[in-house]
Specification:
heterodimer; A: alpha+beta; Sulfite Oxidase, Chain A, domain 2; five-stranded mixed β-sheet; 5 helices; 11 strands; 27% helix; 24% strand; B: mainly alpha; Fumarate Reductase Cytochrome B subunit; two-stranded antiparallel ribbon; 9% strand
């Protein structure tokens, strides 16, 4: 420890001078810091959140994409651990759905989508069946182990879809919609599910067909899918418009 | 006689105050996230002894229904918090400052004595050096907690890519709880830290701002 020897008065005077200087520096730093935070908070919103924070989310996603390995899987559990998750979102499910008239539209094209085909539920049932018991993680912070059965989205894309960078899924009334990047869409744990815990999906859980994307928070696992769109432009996403990250996963 | 003694180096002081802002920001944005599923409580049978937090708490501080905002800030400030923390650890190692901070074989005994003294149960004065045993445990411990926050945070932020880490921490729900428990730890650290700063007085607080403290010399 270095020392400055001085007379008592000199020492006290010297220290007072240094204290003043340090507090001035600290004061300026505090004001500058507070001003920066204020500026971020009041910056023009982009998708419901100040744009600097949106930019940070996109930066985080680039980091996340850089370390993404499709072979790393979400942990799977014994089927005895499966429970019924709560019904948390009803957007797009509010109207009664006539299951006999339901069909899945496959769309292509960007801003002016074209219906390429309209598939009955049998088309999905005919694809190879896949089951998994994974943890369904809600963005709110709760999670539940659930047993799902359906077809892999990758199998569906191979048969009925296109190899586009983005896949958008929406409810029949277009009230709820999510976007996926290709890597997440073709991941081996991304399902078009028609059964939950050994039973056909109930209306509240998205009958007759829902997405289960184990890489991402539950908000991406859209219920009651009415259309799947293959596009080169990042697909619209309901919650990404409300201030959430578009990717929300890995 | 009094003289001026250099106590805290400049980088340590800057990183200390940066951390005050960053950790406060992490805790605040963390509360915005926790609000969305505030399930942690202490209960015996059906009787809830302590629920974190009552609605009045959220209302008073305006923390309700701001999950998206909380996540946005949390995942932006995390870079600053991590960088500052790693820089601090790197600096203490590089500068040799760690020798004052890391507990040694006498620290535990000393920490116990300091605690008895501070609780007015013993008259034995704490040793007069930069950091006594209790401080060594506290300041090293809180750094380990910081590392714990980064790891448990990563485990719940990217639970598939860092599945091994999430598994090591006992699974997703355990990691979330651990991440929260560490935050409770910071709050407890903060309360004791502030109490001790008030007790130690202006000379000690000033040293963390300008680096120097006034030392009374015992004249022979």
């Amino acid at each position: 420890m270095s020392t400055t020897s001085a007379t008592p008065t000199d020492a006290a005077v010297e220290l007072r001078r240094m204290t003043r200087r340090s507090f001035a520096t600290g004061g300026i730093a505090t004001v500058a810091g507070a001003a920066s935070l204020w500026w971020i908070k009041h910056a023009v919103p982009e998708g419901g959140i100040p744009w600097p924070l949106r930019k940070m989310m996109e930066f985080n996603s680039r980091v996340s994409d850089a370390i993404f390995d499709p072979n790393r899987l979400a942990p799977t559990f014994d089927v005895s651990r499966a429970r019924e998750p709560r019904v948390n979102g009803m957007i797009g499910l509010k109207k009664e759905l006539d299951l006999r008239r339901w069909h899945l539209d496959v769309l292509t094209g960007g801003d002016k989508p074209v219906i390429e085909r309209s598939l009955p539920i049998n088309a999905i049932h005919e694809l190879p069946r896949f089951e998994m018991v994974t943890e369904f993680k809600c963005v709110e912070g709760w999670s539940e182990v659930v047993h799902w059965a359906g077809c892999r989205l990758s199998d569906f894309i191979a048969k009925y879809g296109h190899d586009t960078p983005f896949v958008g899924l929406s409810t029949p009334d277009r009230a709820y919609y999510v976007g996926l990047d290709r890597a997440s869409a073709v991941h081996s744990q991304s399902l078009l599910a028609y059964e939950m815990n050994g039973q056909p999906l109930t209306s509240g859980h998205g009958a007759p067909l829902r997405l289960v994307c184990s890489l991402k928070y539950g908000v991406k696992s859209i219920k009651r899918i009415g259309a799947i769109q293959f596009t080169n432009k990042r697909s619209a996403d309901y919650w990404a418009e409300q201030g959430y990250d578009w990717h929300l996963g890995h | 006689m009094a003289r001026i003694e250099y106590k805290h180096r400049r980088p340590i002081r800057w990183m200390h105050w940066f951390n005050v802002v960053l950790l406060s920001g992490m805790i605040w944005s963390g509360l915005l996230i926790y609000w969305a599923n505030d399930i942690y409580r202490i209960q015996i049978g059906q009787r809830v002894l302590l629920k974190l937090f009552p609605d009045a708490f959220y209302n008073t501080f305006g923390l309700s229904a701001r999950l998206a905002e909380g996540m946005a800030w949390h995942f932006a400030l995390m870079w600053g918090f991590a960088t500052n923390g790693l820089a601090y650890v790197g600096y203490t190692l590089f500068s040799g400052e760690w020798r004052h901070l890391v507990p040694n074989r006498n620290s535990f005994r000393e920490a116990w004595q300091v605690m008895l003294h501070d609780l007015h149960l013993s008259r034995v004065e704490p040793p007069k050096r930069k950091f006594n045993g209790a401080q060594q445990f506290a300041y090293t411990g809180v750094i380990l907690m910081g590392g714990g926050s980064l790891l448990t945070g990563l485990a719940i932020f990217k639970p598939v890519q860092f599945g091994w880490l999430t598994w090591l921490l006992g699974g997703y729900e355990c990691a979330r709880f651990e991440h929260f428990a560490l935050t409770v730890g910071y709050v407890l650290f903060f309360l004791i830290h502030i109490a001790q700063v008030i007790r130690a007085g202006w000379n000690s607080l000033r040293a963390m701002v300008c680096g120097y403290e006034l030392v009374e010399e015992v004249t022979p």
